Structure formats: C-alpha cells, structure tokens
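Journal club prep — side note

Before the paper discussion, L.F. wants everyone to see what a predicted structure for a comparable chain looks like in token form. Sequence:
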Amino acid sequence: MTRVDERPADALTDEARKFVLELGRALHALGSPSYRVEDAMIASARALGLQGSFFATPTAIFAQLVQPGGEPAITLLRVRPGDQDLGKLAQLYDERDDVVQGRRGAREGSERIRAVMSSPPTQGPWAELPAHVLSSVGAAVFLGGATSEVAVASLCGLVVGLLGLLAVRARRFARVFEPTAAAATAMLAQLFAAIAHADPGIVTVAGIVPLLPGLTITTALAELAVRHLASGSARLLGALATMLTMAVGVGLGARVGTMLVDVPILPLPQPASLWVQVPIAFVCATAFAILLRARWSQLPPVLTAVGIAFAGVQLGGLVFDRELAAFVGAFAVAAAGNLYARLRRRPAAVLRTPGLLLLVPGSIGFRGLTTALQQDFSAGSQFAFRMLLVGGALVAGILVANVLVPPPLDVEPDSED
C-alpha cells in the first residue's frame, strides 16, 4: 500500500531531489560505471515525478532536476572513484526500491542511504589478508606456476595484504601503496627465485594480481563502447597510470633483487591441467568474494558466477583463440547476472563482477608494460594488443548479453520485471 504524504509539494520535491543525488553519489562510490549511475538516477527521478538530466564522470556528477512546470535546479557533485562493496550495493538497491515503490519517503530513503555508506565495509581489512594469499595462489596456478611458484606467490600475497592493512591506517602511505607493493613483491620474487628456483615473472604478477586495474580497464572500454567518451577516456587513462606506476615499482624492486642475488634461468612453465584449474577457480572465487566485500550470503552467487565464466572460457576455447574465448565467458556471466537481477531484484554486479574478474586482461597488460621497461618494446606491444583484444572481447560479450537478456528496467519496478 502506497503511503500518502500530506506535506507541501515544494518540500516533497526538494526531498526527492536530495534522494536522487544521494543515490547517484552512493552508486558512484561503490564503483558503478558512469552509464549505470546515470540510468539509475534518471529512473529514480522519473519514478518520483521529476525530470532529470545527468552527466557522470569518474570525478564529478552534473545533475539537472526539475519538477514538471518548475524551474530547473543544477547541481555539481564532486566525487572520487570508490571501491567495490557488493554487500553495500545490495543494501542500496533495497533502499532505492523502497522509495521508488512508495514504501518509504524520499527523506527517510536519503537518511538510510547515508547510513549504509557510513557503515563499516562489509568485509573488514583483516578478512582481506587471507584473500590476497588465496588470489595469489590461484593466479600462480593459472599462470603455469609449479609448487615453488605457488609457495612464493602465497608469501608475496601475504606481504601485499599486510601493506594493504598499513595503507588503511596511514592515508599518506595509501597514495603510494600500489607501486610500493609492486616493488616489494618483485624484490621478494627475485630473492626467492634464487632460493626456491621459482620463476620471478610468475611470482611477481601473481603476488600483485588483486591490485591490477583489469576490471577498471574493462569498465572503461565498456563506457567507450556505449559512447560515454569522457568517462571512458578518463577511467582508461587512470588505469593505465596505475599500471605504469606499478610497472616502475616492479622494475625498481627487481633491480634491487638482482643486485643481491644471482637469479637462475628457468625453463618456461607448463599450464596446469584442467583438473587442477577447476578447484583453483573456486579458490579464486572465495578470494574475490572477500576482496569485493560481498556478504557471506552472497557467496553462492559469486561461486556460480566464477563457475559460469570459467566454463564459458573453456567452451569458447574449443572454437575461438584464447583471447576471443573471453567473449563467450563474458557473454555467459553477463547474461546470468542480468537474469539474476530480473528474478531476484538484486544487483547484476553480484554475479557479473566476480565472473569478469576471472577474465579481465590486467595481468596481460601489466606484463606488457614490464616487458617494455626491459627494452623489449616489440614483445611489450604484443602484450598491449592482447590486453585490448581481451578487453574488447569482454565488452562485446557484455553488450550482446544486454541485448539478448536485458537487465531489469528500474523506472517501473513492479510492472517491468
């Protein structure tokens, strides 16, 4: 039953405007792409009887809201790219639906959104420590590492997790966290390469894989594909800048390591068998659930998403090249996410984001940068091209899935789902 509010129309309009702005700010802070932020704000404004025009970028949201027949109000929100938190995102969707469907007033909805955003992260920083270790172990296996590479990568993941705890407590260190972690990982990889005969390249990439902005690159390419040029370009350049600073950190750390020990030349590793990759994929899924700050009740959808992405890539590999097989995996996981959103009224990102994390091209591009820093520009450009090819395949899979299995329309939640 819809509740009737008898306050003056101007007061209700002002509260509705504040709710739409709070919703957009919160979605942006939880890592949503700019086009999804705009779509959610437009839909919510329309459901509350407002006309809205919005322009979201990684650093600002421009909003024009007006009641039919009234004067437009233009607002600039200064925002910063935020971290993924699937638990808070699910809460945010619940609060949005309560307001647009009339179960709660706009003012109360704004207050509840602020309460959600000011609450502690769904998964605390100490939970992320074992997640870094698990993700490094999984990455080492997928990169073809043997027992020695897996052992050293787990140690590097632990060091990166400890540095992450320091970054949470010290804001100044947080600004240089990624390059510092990359340098420490590269130095440890060189030192243990001489002791444990582990491949330093595999260990380095596996140790810092949770920090690589592969998902950001995929989001940027998706924004460019839907003609959101300003946001896509800014996000892509930001991701490349992060990768460049990390590559410089790896170069410095590796140089220090080679000055301390002589690193042996090892044979190229062989990829792990499918029987090893399957359980490791679900180890990675558990790590993703923690790093994406999902609730424990969201673990089954996360595991399902990673399983769908992995199966899609394996099936795609039977027909396409390795890079283009990512298209099949992205299509499968994006279609499953949209179907999950339609049936459960939950964010599609709960399935889509963990699945895409298994496919994103961050490690490929990072290896290209580090190769180029070693003066091998030919091999580096090949890695860069593969990164763009994989990213393009992921975006194509997402776009095709959105056409064949459309996400739910948020304008009329009761009638459209």
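L.F.'s comment for the group: Residues 1-9, 411-417 have pLDDT under 50 and may be disordered. Keep this in mind when we get to the figures.
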